Every structure is written in structure tokens, then in C-alpha cells.
Amino acid sequence: MNATARDIARFRLHWSGCSDRGKVRSNNEDSFVGLRFNRQELERLGKEGQAALQTADFVFAVSDGMGGAQAGEFASRIAVEKVPQILPKGFRPEFEHPEANSAGVLLQALFQEIHKALVYLGQSYEECRGMETTLSLCWFAPGLLHFAHVGDSRIYYLPANGGIRQLTEDDTHVGWLHRQGKINEREARTHPRRNVLQKALGGGNQFVDPQIGSVAYTVGDRFLLCSDGLVEGLYDAHLLDLIGAVGAGATQEGLGQRLVEASVAASGRDNTTALVIEVRGV
């Protein structure tokens, strides 16, 4: 059931994010961002915080770059820096739902803009040649979350009534095999080609076709955005245990860091990023 205007006036978002280079990589090619915006202002959010949904929309995104030298780090940073330049144009008046179609058009334009910027830089500068990035993004409008995704970073939905569901589809052949039931979760996570992307922003990809969707949210719902490094060390059941342990009324502080630390302790072979958002009542 969609939330009413009165419900939304009492909603607050709590968020917690963290990123770590892991045990092996010399630099961190992951980036994440949180933004609060309306018609008058745009605010960059810190790694931890909370704020009301009544007078502003919120955007959270995770990006995992790839490329030689520092190009991957540069690519992921470009992706998250483009977000505040475009999405605030889609803000709607208080309590008005952005229609899924119009939100989808704006998100498609955002991903196209990022893709063009990365391709241009890759063609113009030798040190940027071939750089590409994933991008998984959540836009919290009144009562409705719009999401868009390319690559193998992930968005998970943990509804208030329990369980965990991956909203995004990994743009890999291994991800397709898993979705088709041809391999199980353990086999997918240990497959030698699990990190070979079929789709990304930038690089040699001619076209961009992001996965776009929407889901209604209510008090107690939680969302996790993460790079593939997080799920190298944590299975879905582990994510549910760690995030579910927060529960209604418990502290959200440091949850992103606890997830990242748990994953790095179990694996740490890749850069690792987690960003958890919980919908709370006042």
C-alpha cells in the first residue's frame, strides 16, 4: 500500500555508508554519494545521518570503477559527481509522486550523460582509455523509490515484514546463470568469470540500457547499495542477519562500517562499499 501524504510527513531516512580498499588493492576505485535536494537547494550528505522526507527528495548511489592506473577511481568519481548535476531537475512539489515514466526518462538521461562523459575522456586521454564503471542508484521521492542500475554493484530491498530481495540484476553471464537457476549462490560467487561484465558505463560499450524500476516503501523498510566487493565476503543470508539485527528503534550508527569490516575480514580481495538506508517514523 502506498503511503499517504500524512504518512510521508512523518517519515525520516537514516543512512550509514562506508568504503574500504580491502586487503589487496593499492587504491579504492569505489565511490558513493548521498544527496538531499529540492527546488531551492542541494545538500551533500555525510557518511552517517538522518533527515525528514517531507520537504526534499534523497538520492544515494554506489559506483565501482575499472581501468588502468587511476582510471577506475576517476571513472567512479565522475559517475557520482554527475548525479547532482541532473537529478534535482526532477524534483516535484511536496507530496507529489514523480510518475514512474518521467522518473525513468530522467534516470535514463543521467546514465546516458555519464556514459558519454566517460567515453569522451577515454577517447581523449591515453591514461583514461578503456575506463568504465558500474552505477547503482536509489532516488527516494514521496512514498516511492526509483532505482537505476548498470553493472554488478547491487541494490537490495529488506522489507519491514522480513526477508531480503536483490532489486538489481548483475550484468554478467554468471549473474544470468544464477537467475536462470543453472548455478546456486555459492557457485556464482566462486565462478572464475563472476567479475566479467557484459554491461558498464564508459569503456567500449556503444549503448547504455540501464535497468530501471520503482518500489513503494514504508516505515521499517531498508535498502542496501553495495559494490561487488561486499558480496565477495558476505552471502545474502549474512547481509540479512547483519542488517536485520538493527531492527526498529535500534541504532543505525556505524552499520555501513560494520558490514564492510565483516566482508573485508571474510575476503578483502576487492574494494568494498556498503550504504544502508532505513525508513523510520518520527
Would you mind describing this structure in some detail?
This protein is α+β, with helices and mostly antiparallel strands and 282 residues long. The protein has helices at 5-8, 71-86, 100-124, 173-179, 185-190, 228-233, 236-244, 255-266, and strands at residues 11-20, 30-37, 42-44, 48-52, 57-66, 132-133, 135-141, 144-150, 154-158, 165-166, 201-202, 211-216, 222-226, 272-281. It has a single domain, classed as PPM-type phosphatase domain (Phosphatase 2c, domain 1), CATH 3.60.40.10. Helices cover 30% and strands 29% of the residues. Strands 2, 3, 5, 6, 7, 8, 11 and 12 form an eight-stranded antiparallel beta sheet that branches. Strands 4-1-14-13-9-10 form a six-stranded antiparallel beta sheet. Helix 2 (71-86) runs antiparallel to helix 3 (100-124).
Describe the structure using short key phrases:
8-stranded antiparallel sheet, 14 strands, Phosphatase 2c, domain 1, globular, 282 residues
Number of helices: 8
Q: Fill in the CATH topology.
A: Phosphatase 2c, domain 1
Q: Which CATH class?
A: Alpha Beta
CATH superfamily: PPM-type phosphatase domain
- The total count of strands amounts to 14
User: What helical percentage do the residues reach?
Assistant: 25-40%
- What is the H-and-E element order? HEEEEEHHEEEEEHHEEEHHHE
Share of residues in strands: 25-35%
Using the CA coordinates, give the radius of gyration.
18 Å
* Oligomer type: single chain
Query: In terms of per-residue confidence, which ranges show pLDDT below 50 for 5 or more consecutive residues?
Result: none
Instruction: Give the biggest beta sheet.
Output: 8 strands, antiparallel
Span between termini: 19 Å
Rough shape?
globular
Briefly note the structural class of the backbone. alpha+beta
CATH architectural name: 4-Layer Sandwich
